[in-house]
Input
Amino acid sequence: MPDQVGGDPRARTTAGRWRVLGVTDGALLYQVRCLVDDPGWHGPLPNLGHRVFLGRSGASLRRLNGQLTFADATSVLFSRPGDEMHVSHPLGDGDVYTCLELSPELLADRPDAAQWLDRRGWDGSVDERLDLEHRMLVARCARGVDRFEFTERMHRFVGRLLSASPIGAGEPGAEIERAVGRRPATLAAHRRLADRAREVLAGSDFRLGLTEVAEQVGCSPHHLSRVFQRVTGQSLTAYRNRLRVRAVLDVLADDDGQPLGTVAADHGFADQAHLTRVVREQVGHPPARLRRLLTAAEAA
Output
């Protein structure tokens, strides 16, 4: 395996509980649950390979080459060798992410190599179908796969990830740049407000109302709703649903037998029918089937 990929990933990121999920020539997949007592900044973290960070739960702040990004369970971040990254955990420890490290040699052999190798780094959001595929890849690898199967599944996922990524798309916040006339101070303030709202929602139990979220970030509900839509391209309701469906997927993957009615109540849904409807709309399957998909012994 090339020097840029492999070895102990703990040497190049923050403290945490680790689980290596798969290893093949030029690729390493692992899961991290961050264990950080200090919510302040940590780093810079050595970056020895091309890395894809996929959020699973919790939230963090990442500063990649000086650019600040709020990362949560909906986020994806790609970095290259030589990038400088600092990480902070404003909500405390316990956030979970999956990291896929890829060697330049592996990427160079792909038909989409230029998109991976020429981009300095991107961040964005993973849609619900790809998030489910990510979680099923993790679940399958955690149950145990051989090197052949892992390699095939990894390449398939990488291709789908790139096709769904913001590479080549418009930069996040393009709509708000047009709306505020590209005034840097206003644009920066609006992005901070949207990130603060994301932080509040990510750290909540999903029972907060819009008025309560607005109070915590210090503005009116109308202003927050309008700015959030312009900055992120989605409504606060849509973003909140994306977060809580991902939280539900974590619960279903644990398969502790918790009744779906209890899961619904714990995540702020009106009832089990509401939970089922929202989850089905997001990922195309009802919760009961998702529980089987994420925990069954057979291959997905």
Notes: The mean pLDDT is 81.
